[in-house]
Request: fold
Amino acid sequence: MTVHFQEVVPVDTYSVQCKGMLHEIDHKVLTMLYQPLVGAFAHSLYMTLWCEVNMDRQTQKHQHLMNVTQFSLKDILAGRKKLEAIGLLKTFKKDGDSSREYVYELQLPLSPNAFFTDGFLSIYLFNRLGKAKFTEVRESFYIAQTDVSEYKEVTASFSDVFTSLHPSEMSSKSYAEINENVLPEDVSLHEKDIHGKVVLSESTFDFEAMVNQISSFIVPKEVITPKLKEAIYKLAYIYQLQPMDMSKQIQNVYYSTGEITAESLRKEIQKWYRFEHEEGLPVLALKTQPVPLKALHGMQPQSKEEELIKYFEEVSPYRLLEDYSGTTPSEVDLKLVAYCMIDQNLTPGVTNVLLDYVLSENDMKLAKGLIERIASHWARKKAQTVIEAMTLARDEKRKYKEWQDKKVNSGSYNKGNKKSNVTVPDWLKQDRVSADQTGDANTDTTEDENRKWLESLLNSSK
Reply:
């Protein structure tokens, strides 16, 4: 058998943490239900550790715990084991050079209902207390309930009291603060098993009208579960969606994923709302590459290619389109930018490379089919930086060249085609051998090849 000093000695340190707060009923449960099972000292040790959670101390030596409880380390270890065994404590250990560090994570006791329906702890307590005392203790937790079957519920719903938020109050900053990185990694929020539930009046949304507008060929009726129905009411109220709008969002989610949950629907509606109200087309297109994804942030370019990388990283897609046309980008072009950044989740820098690539290769035209095809491909490749996107563009060019050579060799192209005005950007030419080096390259032939490649891509994307 392991002796206690092999597990813990007075100089070993410990810290205490928890994931909730003890409430009045918890104190009664600990004293009346757990104490008969673990004993008075283990119960006292548990309450002592709870007090230390609130003293805001980082670490203590076990000698301190011995002084506070006036028990030996052997007794403290025995009490700790009982708390661990009954589910009131989790212990974590890290071995150091000269001592060990422990983290004691306190667990909340079961609720009275959970304890007496446990099937194990309740039987153990019954054997400890006997039938008469067990019944007396259990009855002390009873809460008298009035029969309300003959009463009419008149509880106010959330929508009866509170008004929905205006679009101006639902900014992108709010979304980020609520849903992204709310908590540091080393903290958690207090939890409570039983809590009130927000209920919305069904009169706030015509659920049947929404169901009637959902195609049964796209979304089977059984997909709309009671839990999803509850989420639909809340989302419709928060985002002020009409039945038709909600039916479209449901069909979009199910069509793209083959299933639908409250969370996936919330994300789809949030994306739609941000696009329609707060982050409209111009605002979205004005975003620039995030600083952590900038390869040349705070650096001076040392080559022509680095100048182009810097440009893609610093300008927004909106500005890039302005630079190309010299005028305000059209709504059609901005919708393609939104598709890249919202639907395919491409970063602004990657979107810039894609726009430059297609404009250069397609006679200054943004073809919807080509944009969508390349954007989805780059999204699957998880391209996030400008350099990654440029590498993918060069790879596309190389693959096309290989395919083109086969076509030319088979004589499938008409050599008399008219020359195009396509200008290929310098960064796409990196892997080519220059005309001065080879002495036999032909610029007209290159541009003709580019045009034919784009024609084939556009035809295949229709």
In short: DSSP finds 22 helices and four strands in the chain. The first helix runs from residue 24 to 38. The CA atoms of residues 10 and 458 lie 76 Å apart.
